Amino acid sequence: MHTAAAKILVVDDDPAIRNLIVRFLRQKKYEVDSAENGQTALKKFDQFNPDLVILDVNLPDALGYNLCEEMQGSTDVFILMLTSRADAADKKEGFLKGADDYITKPFDLQELEFRVKAILKRQRTVTSSEKQPLTYENLMIDPVRREVKINDSFIMLTALEFDLLHFLASRPGRVWRRDELIQNVWDYEYVGDQRVVDVHIGQIRKKIEIDAAEPCYIQTVRGVGYKFEVEELKVS
Fold it and tell me: Smallest Cα–Cα separation from 163: which of 112, 197, 206, 117?
């Protein structure tokens, strides 16, 4: 998909900010819709089927973190959280709920455009060499369907969690530094705390490991980063 054709839903209860973002993105040739509260946002989300949601954390009838989780419960939609909160704990909460990125008010429109382009770049076409499902023992990762199964049971991952797991699993044994993972999976020079990688790895482990404290698949290499450790990787 060309990013110019991407569909973006803007959710913010402040009409000045909402209208500013909508006008700016339309000038950049995106297809844009908007909502002023959580209830309207969910209706628009189902009708509009956006590729990306720019989502305010504090809405009059809902918490953006919860909307993020609900929206990603049934789709691979990308979420850019928009908030006046700059606290690290708030950012971590957003990432735990599945947010792909986080921008703090007040923000520069050029920075917003940069973040939007960076997120949408991740909707790249899967190459032929990457199309085959990866299987290891009871774990199956299908990059075309974007599905993960353990013992034939579906595991719900956010879009970013899936990308990170598939990237590691398709390169078994290779040790990756946090900045390398950010550059390859996030697809741009992420300006922020590299511990965001740790947050996502922790969430993946909770979902695919029997014991997240003693992981079988994604191993921590102390002082370096992470690797996907397998004895034998097969193409199913």
Answer: 197
